[in-house]
């Protein structure tokens, strides 16, 4: 079979990219301009805005690397804070109210070709955004955010685990960024309170999805 | 209470999917439309109506009339242009499976589904 070589994944390129990001992470970590969680989060947003305006390909490439490093550090910061809060029980965990139905729900999702995905899967996210699809989301106690079609349940998206937060999001594509048209705590299976919206929103923003305050809607269950 | 209604709709959906019994799906539709009637917020109201429409679509429960009704209610709602377009895209994604029906095909043709900078700029500015 005659395959197009240029389309094959190149592991050495991935390794080089990872090495470059790690180098930039170390540079950013050591820099006094980025020595607090707040400064890193603000710098991440500012870098993304610069990226949107930048037309020079070389400068864009440098900004992309800087953004990737900042994103990694901000997600690390958020995750460490989350894990601390879960441990000291400032952030409670919510349990699946229909755990006994999980296996049936998972089988139903598989039959409908529904596969939950991570927020780091930008291809799936963009596809969802392109359809303005509403998605279910969950935030797990290890800082991972998972999403899935509204045709399945939050329990399937969370693989039956307890969650720190859960809800629904509708995503649209802006100029280059992704934008939440609505971001709610709506979940029948977990029924978390409104507070979880503000706990989860920074994770979405760190991953490049803007969550404006007018999009954050309490689902008073 | 609303959370429990959602849970009940999801239980019925699972039951309908497993048994292929449209009567069970019909119960879920009724609940979803009752939930929509309870909602005071447009985002939540249309979320419940979209759930009902998906079930109508999957089980052949009077989809076209319901689509046209929800669409008319959406256009008359006070949602801002970006969010209205988002919900319209939700409806279109379901409607695409029913293009054989000329009324659905005509409805799809009329829809403006492309986000413009004008639609999204106010929301992007707010989040900056």
Write the layout of secondary structure elements.
The complex is a heterodimer of chains A (221) and B (128).
Chain A: H1 11-30, H2 37-53, H3 57-87, H4 102-111, E1 117-118, H5 122-130, E2 134-139, E3 145-149, H6 154-157, E4 165-173, E5 178-184, H7 195-206, E6 209-210, E7 216-217
Parallel strand pairs in A: 5-6, 5-7
Antiparallel strand pairs in A: 1-3, 2-3, 2-4, 4-5
Helix pairs in contact in A: 1-3, 2-3
Chain B: H1 2-19, H2 22-38, H3 42-59, H4 63-76, H5 81-95, H6 102-110, H7 117-127
Task: Give an overview of the whole structure.
The complex is a heterodimer of chains A (221) and B (128). Chain A has 221 residues and is an alpha/beta fold. Chain A has helices at 11-30, 37-53, 57-87, 102-111, 122-130, 154-157, 195-206; strands at residues 117-118, 134-139, 145-149, 165-173, 178-184, 209-210, 216-217. Chain A folds into two domains: 11-87, no CATH class; 99-217, no CATH class. In chain A, strands 1, 2, 3, 4, 5, 6 and 7 form a seven-stranded mixed beta sheet that branches. In chain A, a hairpin with a 4-residue loop joins strand 4 and strand 5 (178-184). The longest helix of chain A has 31 residues, at 57-87. The model of chain A has no long low-confidence stretch (mean pLDDT 92). Chain B has one domain (2-127). Helices cover 80% and strands 0% of the residues of chain B. Chain B is built from seven helices and no strands. Chain B is globular and about 45 Å long.
